[in-house]
Amino acid sequence: MENKLSKLAILTPLVGLIGGWKFFMFAIYAGLFVYPIYDAQGMYQGDEQIIRPSTYLFLTGIVIFGLLALYGQRLALRARAIAGVEDGLARAAHRFTNFAVIVALVAGAFFAIGNFLGAFNTYIDREENLTVRLFDVYIPILLSTGLVVYIILRAFVFRKQVVKGAKKERMSESEKALGLGYAVPIIATAIAIIFGLAVYDVTRTDLEVWVWVIIQVIIVSGILLGTRFSTKAKSAKAAPPRARATLAAGAANLNFVLSIVFGVTVSIMSFGFGAAGIEKLRVYPPYEEPAPGEEFTAVWSWTVSPLSISWFIEQMLPAIVLLVLAAAGTYLSITERNKVALVAKKPSSASSKKVAKAPAKKANSPKTKTTKTTTAKRPKAKRPKAKTK
């Protein structure tokens, strides 16, 4: 039962990775249909004022991966509660899901910061649609911030304890302080980002020095409040430390690290090849030399070539194969590494039973010795009779 839970915990973030990859590819493909605007002299005037579907497709991919990584961590914690804290496969599943959760947090943070930096000078000198601005910039930043805060709190603060038969208790003061210590700096940073965007949208000028000062003050205030809450949680009464077994062999740990590095590297290659394959669907018009006496008219736009089987086989299939290879290689390397540990544990359990039976036999031997010693002491009472003779 615990082995199935551990394997399912490892498999869940990998499924999320594949789902996130699909939405990322859809987002890149949707971005091909957002055309820039140029004037008659070929000067860039900004992008079309539309709510870009690619923004929400990217965010959906991050949400799918983050939530499945979080669910995989819950499965790993349940497997450790059933199999024991020091079970090899459950421990590896827990470490892998923690890594997946951290990757999801980094992706969410990069998404919010990327939207913030990309929101400047989007429409240059044109009036912008406030509805488009709201749904294309502000709401995605708020959603990604909420996702990061939710994953942090559920993964590292308010998760279930790995204790058999533990009773559900209310949130303690230290847990509340710990949650605020994690959440307050992130929320303060999001508020500072939105404040800077709001000032930029209202003034339509680059942010002044004092605006950046206010932004930094908000961020530092959040960090200080988070530090204060973290100190309060740290000063609370600590739980008793749990017993830990000895560390695994260095070679096994090296293989585990290499499997993670392999999965990350091949996954990045898959994302890169997929994005490059979709980018090849963008076709620019060929350059035509103007006839003598005619003015040069540049065509700054592009066309999107239709999807075809040959394009899929040549461009997208290698990226899909790399993605499946990364997922399968990571899963098999983690499970096979701990399968050896499970096989090695079986003879030790049988020998432990023999050792447990041996002291039971020895436990009877002191009783026989005590009876012999008591019988041996009885003849000493006959010595006084020998003296009377």
Key phrases:
single chain, 389 residues, mainly alpha, two-stranded antiparallel sheet, 4 strands
Summarize the structure.
This protein has helices at 2-31, 53-83, 88-118, 130-157, 173-203, 209-234, 250-279, 309-377, 383-388, and strands spanning 36-38, 44-47, 282-283, 303-304. The chain is mainly alpha-helical and 389 residues long.
What does this structure look like?
The chain is mainly α. The chain has a domain at 2-165 and 250-348. 72% of the residues lie in helices and 3% in strands. It has nine helices and four strands, in the order αββααααααββαα. The chain has helices at 2-31, 53-83, 88-118, 130-157, 173-203, 209-234, 250-279, 309-377, 383-388, and strands spanning 36-38, 44-47, 282-283, 303-304. The strands form two sheets. Strands 1-2 form a two-stranded antiparallel sheet. The protein has a two-stranded antiparallel ribbon with strand order 3-4. Strand 1 (36-38) and strand 2 form a beta hairpin.
Rg: 33 Å
Run of helices and strands: HEEHHHHHHEEHH
Estimated share of beta-strand residues: under 5%
How is the biggest beta sheet arranged? 2 strands, antiparallel
Contiguous helical run count: 9
> How many angstroms does the end-to-end distance come to?
82 Å
What is the structural class? mainly alpha
Biggest sheet: strands side by side, in what order? 1-2
The shape, in one word, is flat
Low-confidence segments, given as residue ranges, are 162-167, 241-250, 340-344, 348-377
- The overall strand count is 4
**Mean pLDDT reading:** 75
Q: What is the percent of helical residues? A: over 70%
